[in-house]
Specification:
homodimer; alpha/beta; 6-stranded mixed sheet; globular
């Protein structure tokens, strides 16, 4: 089968063997925002045409491609949901060169009953089920980080944290960015920011330190960005980690992000276990295995 | 004397009688950013020329005009500091049509020892000393809100919260803003945001609700901005208010902001006492009264 993780900015396709091994892969900057005139069918054919010609027929798409802004809307499925429930709710798409199905996103409510949605992350979480016990916690860092509670192979609930997007807005559009110069993303200033997130005063106060410490000569302009990143990720991790220490957190995503989150999780008393971005391919294979193909 | 609250965007001048009453006032959008080629002397003369001609000679300037980006830098004075200490550290400026002095900003460290700075807010706080007891807490909401601890007429310490600027960056430069439409600033959605700030999950999680609740049809697009504002102000107030309830908070600033802060402070168990923007004039009069003029 062919599995595609099709998001807002990128398109990642995998040719997957019956036993789940990845036979081939393609990555392109052809996310939703980069597909002109909604030419999704043409884009898909251009990217995976050779694999279709080689005999593949089953194509499974996950991610924002199934949103209202995507090819076709696949309604959210309510949690709890596992790969089997998701496979039962795939949405068919017209495509002349093969069978294409969309993975639905998931909806849930947080502890206070506030609505939550995800699209694509559920597939990545299913991709690391093999490494999880009966009960597990996963963290998928990014523009909108997700923290996902898994029990017996099903996603029970999750929360979104706008950490990446807030970081970008603060660096690009507030006085904090004006004092920053290019520098390393991790290291001691990042750790210092994570430590800072434990202090009283709250996030809106802590972030001002990325300015006041520079003014006071106690933070280099080249370290301010890493310090701010540490404050924000520290706040996210502290809010999302259970109070009791020792929680294992399966961290799934791009290495440059999961390495920072792993540092923050450790600093906050958790045990990070890092997984790579191929989790999506394994999740697509799992869902595709449960699906009913013609 | 003449007192001027001269900030980044606005210029507010007061002609003050010997007994502290305000005889006249001028407001202009001639803040630092709007003064071409650093023509501060010309700007000042144009604005207060008639008062100088009428015999005023003593001119006291407070605010960002004393920063590195302003007319002349007035070094920060360390807390604790009262109006008398500030008056002892005024910085003289060359001006052919009168005696001009700059009020220095204040520096401090928060509970964790992180550097803090303010410029202009100290003068507003001194302006409401008359309404304060021996020990008081003041809140000056804005782009960079300040919470100021006052004891026996002196500013002991303070913290900055980047609430206003973060709100602007989130509305203008994240996905949250794309779902928002013009609506009222306060009301029930604001209060709901303040309540939300009490829930577990943290600020970076709560703000996502301004999107997910709209997606779920539980929040109107015209209410999303007020809800987000309530979340951010709620987080600021909860972090800055002492744990024990019943704290009186002197809220100083523009009425459209202090009315929102008063709602949030009440909801979080504090007692707001609102003061208007003329606090700056009264503070300038107090400092000017302690100053040594030629």
């Amino acid at each position: 089968m062919i599995g595609v993780d099709w998001g807002t900015t990128s398109f990642r396709a995998f040719r997957i063997a019956r036993d789940g091994t990845i036979r081939d892969r393609r990555v392109a900057l052809r996310g939703l925002l980069n597909v002109p005139d909604n030419r999704f069918a043409d884009t898909l054919r251009e990217e995976i045409g050779p694999w279709l010609a080689a005999g593949e027929q089953h194509v499974l798409l996950a991610g924002m491609i199934g949103s209202r802004q995507g090819w076709k809307e696949a309604p959210y499925l309510s949690c709890p949901a596992g790969a089997r429930e998701v496979a039962d709710c795939l949405v068919d798409i017209e495509f002349d060169w093969g069978q294409v199905k969309l993975v639905p996103g998931l909806s849930a409510a947080d502890e206070a009953g506030v609505a939550e949605v995800m699209r694509g992350e559920e597939t990545q979480v299913f991709g690391v089920l093999g490494a999880m016990g009966h009960s597990a916690l996963a963290c998928l860092p990014g523009t909108h980080s997700k923290w996902v509670k898994v029990e017996h192979g099903r996603i029970i609930r999750f929360t979104t944290h706008m950490t990446g997007e807030t970081f970008g807005a603060l660096c690009g559009h507030t006085i904090l960015g004006r004092m920053m110069r290019e520098g390393p993303a991790g290291g001691e200033p990042f750790d210092e920011g994570v430590r800072r997130s434990r202090d009283p005063g709250g996030l809106l106060h802590h972030i001002f330190g990325a300015r006041s410490l520079v003014l006071a000569g106690q933070l280099a302009e080249t370290d301010a960005q890493a310090y701010l990143s540490g404050i924000l990720i520290g706040h996210e991790v502290r809010a999302a980690l259970p109070a009791e220490p020792g929680q294992v957190v399966h961290t799934i995503g791009a290495p440059e992000l999961t390495v920072l989150y792993a540092r923050a999780i450790s600093a906050c008393g958790g045990y990070p276990e890092r997984h790579d971005g191929e989790a999506a391919a394994r999740g697509l294979a799992l869902i595709g295995g449960h699906a009913t193909w013609r």
